[in-house]
Amino acid sequence: MTGRPTFGDFANAARGLLRHDPGTRDTAAGHPTHTARAGTIEEFTRSMASLLAVMDRYCADITTVLATPARRDEARLPGTWPYASIQVQEALHNAAAFLPSASLSNIRPGDLHDDPAVRRLDAVAAVLAAGRDLLHTHVSTRPDGSPQDSSEWAPVATSEPVTRALLLELGLWARRTAEHGARIALPGPAARHGTSTEREQLNTACQWLWMLDSAVRVAQHHQPVSAADVSLLHAIPVNTPEPRRIPGGTETIIGLCRGATSTAERIRHAATIHPVDPKFSPALTTDSLRHTATCSTVISHNCEILLRTLATRARQHGSEALADRLLGSADRANRARLAWLHTARAWYEVTSDTRGTIAPNAAETGDLALWTGRLAYADPAWTPALGPSHPTRTPEALAPKPGDLPTVVAAVHQATETLTQIASADHEQIQAAAQARRLLVPTRSLPDRFDIPHPFAPAPPDRIETLLVAYHNARVASA
Amino acid sequence: MSAVATGMAMALPAQARELSTDLPAPGLAFRIVAMLGTAAVQEGSDMNQIESARARVEQATGLHAVLDAAYDAFEQMLTAITIQQDRGGETFAAFVMSGTAAANGRDALAAAPSLPRVSSGDLAGTALEPCGDPPPQAAAMALASLSQLLSQRLTDAGDHSADAGDRVACIQAARHAAYICSLLGGTPEP
Questions:
Q1: Looking at per-residue confidence, does B126 or A312 come out higher?
Q2: Which residues of B touch A355 (CB under 8 A)?
Q3: Which domain covers residue A91, as residue numbers?
Q4: B189 found inside a domain
Q5: CA A441, A447, A448, A450 torsion-angle sign
Q6: Same-domain check for residues A396 and A466
């Protein structure tokens, strides 16, 4: 939906490169065809050692999830996949022991080897390293060294089912690497230059890679990884938001859905990656929190309109059951709208010690209000401001074909998921800000008996409580 | 909203009741109400608070009085806007955004050093009256008109203020008022 690179892009590229017969012309590596020069066995094994080093890093990640020391202690007999992960790790270490140290490789990034087979292995190593880097964008490290989720995909990337799918993928890479290596190790008139010892060592390394593959296949036989888990692994996107987008007024329905989705992801990403310190940060401003609550109210209003329009369209297509479910979702969006409205109003009676600016993250909730509004309303230049008239988009215009319904529903889901996260994040921040006595009220709003010689006074507990309850209700209603 | 209204009512001194009892000068809001016809005029009685606020802002003389009247006007706008928010419909988004802008404008003025600590207006009495339910378009026009006036008066007040704190407060509040005006279909002064 958003066009971000996914792990599947890299995994499929590696599969394609390894599927390629090293004897044929070199096009799979993405480089122009070079004048082929058969390299030596030693050159090949160095590249293979580099590739195995990358695989070993994957394996370390996998065993961290499947076979942690604590889990090994818990169960005397490890489960199918944890046991396989341990076997894979041993097989990789044994294979690597028969190859030159990966650190001895004289290939630097950007170098292109003359030998197509070597070049291909280097390309696979680079692609797999990039794939692993992509997975690691979802987890960061705390100052104490413990892992910390950096995105909403982190629980997926570190889940057992997806980790098993990754181990299955690793088995495939190892098998195909072994096939290439065994072919290179064969002696003969057209063979590469190399000593018999080098050939034997390469062959032994390949045998260990087949052992690795066997361990994975046994696990797959006893406890198969589902296609859905493999798909989920491949769908993990890089944890980098797309650039900020603002609707230009010429977008199609698909374009508006994409804009809403990417903006929703940006907001959630920012909430995860850059939470401000509510006790001290000047980025926590009244204007930001009010703007976010206000725009969330508008977004949930737009989502309700969209869901009701989609329900009508589903009924036109004869999908009564779907129409009923969409109407149920519309009712929930209406409850979210009312809950967010109470939140926005709770802010009428409270302010903070920092005012006057809207943080960039908060400003993007306004973008999401625009994207969802332009989906919901017929006017391509819709804004929240009053105009001559604001007719909503007709069901036929919103989803011309039955197949268009899921696209719009997905965009609405992205928006509502974002509102849930906003409510949760802001609730936490306001709670901390209240503890730091950063929530205030204008002194003029207090009864006369309060003689406070300042324009603002600490917010009374009942107003803070009202605000926090409003956010809690907004989170529950948006979920 | 009740806390805002109640708080303001309790903060009002009894001696300063004369200002908004004067007949307001015929301004844009009155021309608009006249245009809306008899029915709207009847419902327009529910917009008395906005008209009173408008009259105070128009007649205010001097920085203290302008700030005082403008602060109360933002409060009155909040009350009126809240009623319109409950209607939902196609005007919902505009009134939700306007409410926040009114709260921001009021808070900007609250920081002005020259703002009297206690309101001198007589809006407390009207604020506690049962609020009516004027049509959204009529309410939007009246509120846009008031916010346009607020923007003008606060810009002028800021320009003539010697205190930097007052200037900043006036400029910020004027900006929020202009935003309300644009949201509700008015044309803010450049």
A1: A312
A2: 104, 107-108, 111
A3: 7-235
A4: no
A5: negative
A6: yes
